[in-house]
Design brief:
Blueprint (H helix, E strand, L loop, with lengths): L4 H8 L1 H8 L9 H19 L12 H16 L5 H19 L3 E4 L5 E4 L12
Antiparallel strand pairs: 1-2
Length: 129
C-alpha cells in the first residue's frame, strides 16, 4: 500500500481517520474504505504524472506521499470536505500538474531525502508537510 494508515494518522490524526472511514459508529479504522481511497488517489497521481516520474508504490518519495495523503483525505471526505481540505487538494493537483509538465521537479538524494524544486512555481519547499 503506497500510504499506510500510520502515515495518514501522523499527518491528520487518528480521530479524523476513524471518523472518515467509520462515519456511523466511529469506533475503528475501516481499512477497506481507507485502502480504496488510497488506491483511487494513487491512480489519480499516476494518471496525472503519466510516466514523467517513476512511481514505485512500495517506495514513494516523501513529497509524493504528502500529495497522496492530501488526495486520499479528500476522497475520504467525499462531498463533505471542509475548505481547508479542498484547498490542500487543489494545491496538490496544481503541483502534480507542474511536475507532469516539468515546471517543478523532485530532486532525489535518496527515497527519504526529497526536495521539491520550485523554480518559478510559486510553491515553497515543504508546502504539504
Amino acid at each position: 500500500m503506497p500510504l499506510s494508515t500510520q502515515q495518514f494518522t501522523d499527518r491528520f490524526g487518528a480521530e479524523e481517520l476513524i471518523a472518515l472511514t467509520d462515519p456511523t459508529e466511529r469506533t475503528e479504522v475501516k481499512t477497506a474504505v481507507f485502502n480504496a481511497a488510497v488506491q483511487d488517489a494513487f491512480a489519480e497521481i499516476a494518471a496525472t504524472l503519466n510516466g514523467t516520474i517513476a512511481l514505485d508504490s512500495a517506495a514513494l518519495p516523501t513529497a509524493i506521499i504528502a500529495l497522496l495523503a492530501d488526495l486520499t483525505r479528500h476522497r475520504l471526505y467525499a462531498d463533505t470536505a471542509p475548505d481547508t481540505v479542498l484547498a490542500r487538494t487543489a494545491e496538490a493537483r496544481i503541483f502534480l500538474e507542474k511536475l507532469a509538465s516539468g515546471a517543478a521537479q523532485l530532486q532525489h538524494d535518496s527515497p527519504v531525502d526529497v526536495r521539491i524544486s520550485t523554480q518559478n512555481t510559486g510553491f515553497s519547499q515543504g508546502l504539504w508537510t
